[in-house]
Amino acid sequence: MGVTIIWDHQVPTGLQMPVGRRIDLVLGTSPGHADAEGLINGYHPERNQYDARAVLERVLFMKRRADSRDPALLVVTHDLFIDGCDFVFGLARPSTGCAVVSLARLDNAYYGRPSAFDDLADRVAKEGAHEIGHLLGLEHCADPECVMFKPETLDDLDRKRMRLCPACRARLRDGPSGEKC
Ligand SMILES: [Zn+2]
Ligand SMILES: [Zn+2]
Question: Which ranges of the sequence are coiled-coil (predicted)?
Answer without folding.
Answer: none
